[in-house]
Specification:
10-stranded mixed sheet; Rossmann fold; 15 helices; 4-stranded mixed sheet; alpha/beta; single chain
Amino acid sequence: MQSSPPSTALPALAPTSPPPAALALSIDYLDALLIPAQPIIDLRVPLALIHSQDNDSAMLDHEEEKGGGEDDEVGMDAFEVDFARDWLNRVVAIGTRRCARGEDEMIGAWEEVVDRAAKLLTDLSGPGAQGASTRTYILPHPRSQSKPESPARQSKPESPASVVSEWLAPPPAASSFYPTPPPTRPPSVVATRDRAPPLPPLELTLRDGTQLEASTGHRTWGAATLFARLLATRPGDFFPGSSGSSDKLYSDPLRILEVGSGTGLVGMTAAKVLEALGRRGEATLSDGGDEPDAVLDNLRYNVAANFPPQSAHTSTPSVKVGVRALDWRDFVRVAPPNGGSALSSSREEKTIIDQTTTRYHIIFGSDLAYERGQATLLHAAVAAHLELPTRTKYNADQSGVPTFYLMLPLRPTHQIEMEEVESLFPPAAQTSSRPAAAVSHLARQFPDGEHFSFRLVTLSSERFVAPTGFGSAGSRGRGARQAQQQSSVDVTTYELRRIVWEAVDSPAAA
């Protein structure tokens, strides 16, 4: 059934305004027409690889839904939205005058109409004026992305583009059907391939705060949305042993930490992916920003909504999800009193090692370098929590080593912040050209008595181009078309860094 646009559906307000009951029905109509009750962010959109002239990058494409949604039926455009906003302003003015006179016997009904019209005007002003909102993120099942390879194909590496083309290829044509053979002949036996039913997608429901709140941790940013999709579509790249290979250098449970979690999309996606893969793990989501109490309360709310507490009627979850406060400033080393370098002080290095009792195999972080000096705090926190190398696992070229995955938007206005990240997490095998103070050294003694120094380096990086906003790609529901059109233009280049411990050439002093 086709809906009418506001310019033809709303009642006239002059010369005589309708009664409050009729206005309330019209406001309900506008609310259902313009404001999505709970946006759905569909991250099952295809990931098409595009090779630019100067850089290999990936573009997170999203297609507008075919067949016409509610916006298509209504024909919403700027004129209709402005018409609705102007009509609501006039309703507020009329109702306010009626309430001020105090002569109308329906003053209570007029007050309700004014309140509802004012609230709808606020919602139409955009996310900056709205209160907390809830969004549902839909992610592909991680097992639906993996294809078993034949032995002949395992020895030949495939390019990412060829893999993606297989994902996007149409299904094989249905088998031909032949008439039933005569009863005098034995029935033909035609080999058919059993098709498993499609795996259900992963779903996460997150509550975001308003943009007017001071801390950035109240919002889900574009880097987290892109990162979550990569975790679901490429689990073998992030969780060792998940792709069926023998690169699992440590057994379950896998210990995972997300730093600067915010609303927790990345950390909870990691937990959901591990569950879907049948892995055991412990995922810890952490934050300690400008408003740690408020951010952590919202983070706990989101975790409880997606990972309900265990009851007598539920089985023990394979992945435990928890929340903790983590202030990065607690892990920054203080220079020795004699003015020497803290990096060369064994006492300072020993202190940083003992400041935490739990270290993690994998650490995730997204959009964590938006202020000067933040990379230094991040480096200290990661060094204090990333699993230390062992005698058999300190070769950074091996897969399955403890890894920090950092997703960053490459904003042109944050060049200094990006330079700080580059100096603190320099490329592997290029650290000799860096000043000693730019890279943290960490002494490690193996059981055989040997001492080695390790530091955090970027083993590899990958770039993507994806929407800038708060995960509007692939959004569905009322108002989705406008969000998709905006995100299709407003895009950002993102960089995913794989950061590991690297052994320094010269052994540390005993």
